[in-house]
Structures are given as structure tokens and as C-alpha cells.
What does this fold into?
Amino acid sequence: MAAVKPLKQVVTKPSARPRSGERRLPRLSPEVVRDRVSLVAVVLLAVAVVSWVISRDAAITARNYHVQEVQGQVADLEQQNNVLQSEVSRLSAPSRVVDVAKKMGLVPVSPDQWRVLSASGGAGSR
It folds into this structure.
């Protein structure tokens, strides 16, 4: 049998030893740092754009809700206006005015019973 030789252990001495409990991070190349910074910038930009789009959508939705609410109020007011116009037409009909006048004791007069008054003079004259 051939004798087994023990392996030599290679130990490298670090330039600065980390303190106990600390891990030393590997040094990154400038290309890797640039790529990671670019990635973070793109992600932040994407988050900003998505946030802006969501806020605009929320604002548009709120305005749409307000427009629908105002349109409902306009429809209600138009209906009330139509009801009131019908009531004005009914109350101002000549036949109704004559009936109300008769109930109040008013009677039609003939043209010879009319008296026309004119104002003459100033405020102090009689």
C-alpha cells in the first residue's frame, strides 16, 4: 500500500481582520455596483410611475363619482321644475282665475263702470 501524504493547508492572511461576530462582505467590481445602482434607479422610477398612475386614477374616479352625483341632482331639479311649471299653468288658467274671483265675491264690471284716475300735480298738491 502506498502511503497517504497529508494535505498541506494554505492559509491566507487577511489585510484587516473582522471583529468577532462581524462578517466581511466581498468587494464588488465597479460594473456590478453600476448595474445594481441602475437596477435600483429603474425600480424606483417604476414605483414612482405606478404611484402616479394610481393617484391619477383615484382622482379621475372621484371626479366621475362627483359628476354622477351632480347629474342626479340636476335630474331631480328638472323633475321638480316640471311639476312646478305644471302647477303654475294650472293655477294661472283664466277659467280658474274667474272661479276664484267669484268665490271671493268679485263680479265682472261693464266698461261704463270703470274709472280711470290720473295723478296730477306734485307730491304736495291735493
About this structure: Residues 33-106 form one domain. The radius of gyration is 49 Å.
